[in-house]
Automatic annotation (TrEMBL):
Residue segments, region Disordered: 308-338
InterPro entries listed in its UniProt record: DDH_dom, DHH_sf, DHHA1_dom, Oligoribo/pAp-PDE_c-di-AMP_PDE
Domain DHHA1 positions: 255-321
Gene3D superfamilies associated with the record: 3.10.310.30, inorganic pyrophosphatase (n-terminal core)
Name assigned to this protein: Phosphoesterase
Domain DDH: 26-168
Biased segments, Basic residues type: 329-338
Source taxon at top rank: Bacteria
SUPFAM superfamilies tied to this protein: DHH phosphoesterases
UniProt GO MF annotations: nucleic acid binding
Length: 338
């Protein structure tokens, strides 16, 4: 069953199936600071493999190895091992939702020594690292490609696998609001819901709950939000930041502030929304969103990060003001020949 474009060559699908079928054990990895698509695609595939009797480990290369609170409801957490316990030279390693080798963080050396390195991803900016590429920029999420691989392997999508794949699909389409929301995306959701998952429960876990402290920290962030209507070639920027001091004042963990961008980006007067979030180690993770006039993926790639045209990010080691000074000149309409 082909559920999306033909970006992946038939011979590459066949080779992937052959590699997985021939493997006694498979090591899975997704990008650092995993989001719903990264963890959902990796754990969904891992659960389907384990059900078929394959020996599976899964991980991501963060120095502080914690699953974001929002994603702890995902089935398959018991597949996870810390980077230190990951096979140093896995015969078969598969990466999920990582556009560059660097996005594997602490697992880069393991990937470098893998016998075969299969890359499953949907970023246009994918650099082509690895020895086999299941990369389809037209796929709404990495879980779209994983669903097809599971089918081609003849594996079963049970309720738990479906919950993982659905989570990647709904997070990367912004709950079927972004432009990647195609008939194929809805058709896939229909198949997964038919496997027995509860879309209402997953939506609540992902978007409709927070500790009370979140409201206080959101309040602080909204207190200093800035609108710059003339910036981004006249399309406008709205931006704010969340300091670790603000979070500490209310004992709010870093992984609770992911939703701030969804409040800020609704502003009519700006095409581009930016939220700078200070992690506990002082590094600023910058989230950017565009309504379509500006290519934030290209801007973030230019600053050492990456992402998609309408959702992207990068890391910064300087103040929010200085980071914005560096970002503004890159916020331009997409190049016609890009
Ligand atoms: P976020 O704002 O964290 O939800 O990230 C939005 C998208 O930007 C993600 O799905 C990634 O594709 C990409 N992204 C975020 N941070 C980085 C980074 N440091 N390097 C590369 N890509 C990133
Ligand atoms: Mn991702
Ligand atoms: Mn993704």
């Amino acid at each position: 069953m082909t559920t999306h474009g033909t970006a992946v060559a038939e011979t590459d699908w066949e080779r992937a199936v052959e590699l997985v079928r021939g493997a006694g054990s498979v090591a899975l990895a997704c990008h650092v600071s995993p989001d719903g698509d990264a963890l959902g695609s990796m754990l969904g595939f891992g659960l389907a493999l384990r059900r078929a009797g394959v020996d599976v480990v899964a991980s991501f290369g963060d120095r502080e190895f914690v699953v974001p609170r929002l994603l702890r409801f995902l089935p398959g957490q018991d597949l996870l091992v810390e980077p230190a316990a990951y096979p140093p030279e896995p015969p078969l390693m598969i990466t999920f939702d990582a556009s560059t080798m660097a996005r594997l963080g602490l697992l880069v050396p393991n990937a470098g020594k893998a016998g075969d390195l299969v890359v499953i991803d949907h970023h246009v900016s994918n650099t082509g690292f690895g020895s086999l590429h299941l990369v389809d920029p037209s796929a709404a999420s990495t879980t779209v490609i994983v669903e097809e691989l599971i089918h081609r392997l003849g594996l079963v999508i049970d309720r738990d696998v479906a919950a993982c794949l659905y989570t990647g699909l709904v997070t990367d389409t912004g709950s079927f609001r972004y432009s990647a929301t195609t008939p194929a995306a809805h058709a896939m959701a229909g198949r997964l819901i038919a496997a027995g998952l509860r879309p209402d429960e997953i939506a609540r876990e992902l978007w409709d709950r927070s500790p009370f402290a979140y409201l206080r920290v959101l309040g602080a962030a909204l207190d200093h939000v800035t609108l710059e209507p003339a910036e981004a070639a006249g399309h406008g920027i709205v931006w704010t930041y969340v300091t670790r001091a603000d979070r500490a004042a209310h004992a709010l963990p870093y992984d609770e502030v992911e939703g701030v961008i969804d409040v800020v980006r609704r502003v009519d007067e700006a095409d581009v929304a930016v939220v700078l979030k200070e992690a506990d180690d002082g590094v600023w993770n910058v989230s950017t969103r565009s309504k379509g006039a500006i290519d934030v993926g290209r801007a973030c790639t230019a600053l050492g990060g990456g992402g998609h045209r309408s959702a992207a990010g990068f890391s910064s080691h300087v103040s929010p003001e200085e980071t914005m000074d560096a970002l503004r000149p890159h916020l331009r309409p997409p190049h016609p020949s890009a």
